[in-house]
Specification:
The protein is an alpha+beta fold. Helices cover 34% and strands 25% of the residues. The strands form six sheets. It has a seven-stranded mixed sheet, with helices on both faces.
Length: 397
């Protein structure tokens, strides 16, 4: 959606295919970091974006063994918005779609599920899609695969995927939120369990970490055992409300828990003749840090910066050269790989936490970070800005 907006803004004719009839999918990436908010500012969209209901996070804290530690301070970033915005992804996508539709060269086709690619003369010339009215073909000088971790485009293009081992998976679910609850997103670590709570105003979106492939074993232990583990980790969720029930009691079935099979991988090459992949289609990110959506948007900005000019000249008989497509990967690959290296390092810390069944104690490193305002600001810059944040180049064509 961001790439479609940017290309249409530059005068390029662009069609976005979305397989669903709306954007209302639960438990997608909903943390919009300052680097992404800066992109919206550069596009003149930030003020309008902030009119959409959202929550703000200016500091990030964790609770380790019952001891709260503030680790990240975003309030000193060199950006217009010095916070992480929490917004359901469907609201963000609806906002982007509405903004993009002001450009006559932008076309959004809902209920168009991409099923494969069109090949002619050894190159990709478009995509096949299923629709409620039957299959269609959408032809284009360039096809961009933005279809996520299980991308149809990467398989259809025969791209080689390099997998990195990941020791954890994540269970997503929600419980209601009360006014007396903590305001910021909090990570909890203790007793061999770990969880992150994301403030959704009237409910908590909760990520509960488990060892890779252990969801069936967790279910075999029973729902009462799971609720007890969560309640021991996050005690305020066990407190009874005015109706005498706790938030733990709201979990009545394992069907409420959605398994995210965590992956970290990257394509050996993101492009071939007539096709380019970006975002999770090119490099699946872990949910650690909540940065996947932001990395994908940075990819989109870099792609538009590199390709807006060449695409205005491209035709079906004269596509964008693969050397130009390679510039996108060359621009973004280092930032992606460094970010994935950080996530892999964090996975090592998390799996050690899951292996520690006793009361956890904050490490010397975390205690030092929490006690130093300068280090908290440095951590805020790393989380909020990421590696090599992209900036929007030229304005409208």
């Amino acid at each position: 959606m961001v790439l479609g907006f940017l290309l249409a803004r530059a005068g390029v004719d662009v069609t976005v295919l979305e397989k669903h009839k709306d954007f209302n999918r639960d438990f997608r990436g909903d943390t919009i970091h300052p680097a992404t908010l800066e992109v919206l500012h550069e596009l003149g969209l930030l003020d309008a974006f902030l009119q959409v209901p959202h929550q703000k996070i200016t500091n990030l804290s964790v609770v380790i063994g019952g001891q709260p530690l503030q680790l990240v301070d975003l309030t000193h970033l060199p950006t217009t918005a010095k916070f992480v915005a929490l917004m359901p992804q469907w609201d963000f996508l609806d906002f982007l779609a509405a903004q993009a539709k002001q450009f006559p060269s932008f076309h959004l086709l809902m209920e168009h599920k991409v099923t494969g690619l069109l090949h002619e003369g050894g190159r990709v010339v478009g995509a096949r899609a299923d629709t409620p009215n039957g299959p269609v073909e959408v032809r284009a000088p360039l096809t961009v695969g933005c279809d996520g971790r299980h991308a149809t485009t990467t398989g259809a293009a025969n791209f080689s995927v390099i997998e990195q081992g990941v020791p954890i998976d994540v269970l997503w679910f929600r419980v209601s939120r009360r006014d007396i609850d903590p305001e910021n997103a909090l990570g909890y670590f203790n007793y061999g369990t770990a969880s992150v709570l994301i403030d959704r105003n009237d409910y908590w979106q909760i990520a509960f970490l488990i060892r890779k492939g252990k969801f069936d074993a967790l279910k075999a232990e029973g729902l009462d055992a799971f609720r007890a583990r969560l309640g021991r980790l996050v005690p305020f969720l066990t407190e009874a409300g005015s109706d005498g029930t706790s938030r733990i009691d709201e979990i009545t079935s394992f069907d409420q828990l959605k398994l995210l099979t965590v992956q970290i991988n990257h394509l050996h090459r993101w492009y071939a003749q007539g096709i380019l992949c970006i975002g999770d289609a090119a490099h699946a990110m872990s949910p650690v840090g909540g940065i996947g959506i932001n990395i994908a948007i940075q990819d989109a900005v870099a792609t538009a910066n590199v390709l807006s000019g060449p695409l205005q000249l491209a035709t079906m008989s004269r596509p964008v050269p693969t050397g130009t497509l390679a510039e996108v990967q060359n621009t973004r690959a280092t930032a992606v790989r460094l970010t994935q290296s950080f996530q892999t390092f964090a996975h090592g810390i998390l799996i050690r936490a899951l292996n520690n069944q006793g009361v956890m104690h904050p490490s010397f490193l975390l205690r030092t970070l929490s006690s130093s305002p300068a280090l908290r600001r440095l951590a805020g810059r790393a989380i909020g800005m990421g590696v090599k944040p992209e900036h929007v180049h030229s304005g409208k064509a």
